[in-house]
Structure formats: C-alpha cells, structure tokens
Predict the 3D structure of the following.
Amino acid sequence: MNWTTLVDAPALSAALPDPALRVVDARFVMLNAAPDAGRQAYAESHLPGAVYADLNLDLSDLSKVGEGRHPLPDSAAFAHKLGEWGIGPSHQVVVYDAGDGSMAAARLWWLLRLLGHARVAVLDGGLAAWRAAGGQETAGVSTPAPVPPYPSQFDVGQRVDAPGILARLGADSGWLIDARAAERFRGDVEPIDPVAGHVPGALNRPFTQNLRDARFKQVDELRAELSALLGNRSPADTVLMCGSGVTACHLLLAFEHAGLHGARVYPGSWSEWIGDPSHPVARGD
C-alpha cells in the first residue's frame, strides 16, 4: 500500500486485513443536522476497523477565537489523538466520509500531510461507493491499540494566514482560489457566514467541479481543468480557501491527485477573513 491521494473501494477492501492499515470515518453534516449526526451514523454502521474522527472535536479547535469556524487543532493535540487511534508514521491511513470526501475526509487527509505523513488517502466516493461495491460494514466499536503521539509538528509552510493574504492583495490576482459554491462566492446568498462575498482578486473553483457522480474526475481531465485555471502560475504560488478551511482541502486533494503539487491552504478562510471589518470584500464574478 502506498496510497497518497485517492483509493477505490475494491483496493481498500482487499487491503482490510493488512495490519499496517488504519481506517478513519470522518463523516460530518454541516447544515440542518445534529452536531453529532456523523458520530451517530458511525455508531450504526461503518467500515470494519474504522475509528471515528469528529470535524468539530478532533479536526478543529473550536475554543480558538478569531480563526474562523473551524480553527486548526494544535499540533500536539492532534498528534496525541492520532496515537489514541493507533496511527503512527509507519501506517497507511485511509479516510472516508459519506460521499465525496468534502465532509470531512479531505480535512483529515490534509492534517496528516501537515505532519509529513505521505501515506494517507481518501476513499474515492466514500461510504456510498463502498456500499455500491458490496463492501463490509459493522456496528462494532473499534479500539485499536494506542501508540505514542505522532512524532511531528504541523508544517506552517503549507498554510497561509490572513496577514499573508492581505499582503498579496495589491500585488496581482489569480493566486487565490475559493472552493465555495459560485452563488456564495458571488455573494448572491450566504447560508452560513454573516457577510457575503469573496476576497478581492480571488478566482472561484467550486470543489464540486472536481467530481463526477460523487467521485473525482480522471487525472487527465482534472489536470487539464486545473492547469487552465492556473494559467502560467505554479501550483506552489497558489493559495486555496473556502468558507472555513474544510472544502479547501478537497480542492487541494484534487490538485495533488492531478499531479499539480505544492498549493497551500488558508485554513481560516472566509469565516476568518470577515472577522476583521477592515478586510476588503468583493461581490459578483
């Protein structure tokens, strides 16, 4: 196993008995659901051996103020949680959610990459694809043997903060890509955050455009579309954002799967940006 972006259901099914494999269920429902809806769904049925990761409790630190709706957890806290899940540097990790990876499998994929863990992949199509392929499920709670906290810290070079965004606004445009839906980017509607619109100069690439039938498009197609979006710009010169730093990770996963490496994420994203009334806001296309 050496999966670093995506893995399909048949390949994962064949690898389930491997002791070097760790599977994580990251199902989360953002709107119109109980906060623990994902955990409840996990308790009803999940992949054999999977542990559960909660976006709010495990993949974020909601006690932090002024860093958006899903602030990053501290490195040490996340490293400790990985140890509780039995995940160490030698393991192949596969993360899944209910479907396309946006809630919140790609977020956990990115957090592991921030620690330098390369062998982590998202189940393409998620639980829906697993069920369509006849994959096994269980209601049994998995309690993997704990290991020491993951021996690494987040690489701050893979993320950008609000001052970093602000400093580049006047230089040029097209380097910042927003993964939210087009109507939210334009400011036509805003169902979550108190201010509508986008960061001036940003481009819009809704993360759903990376998908076809809830699975990622083929590599060649993704690469062609994303390369056209980049133009002459290097992926490493690009910053990805969304509403709260979650679906931006899904867009990063698409870039990496397409072989366009090095884009960075603005984890606070729109929900952090609008927390400072001095930050400029644009609307329209």
Observations:
- The chain has a mean pLDDT of 97.
- The chain has ten helices and eleven strands.
- The longest helix spans residues 219-230.
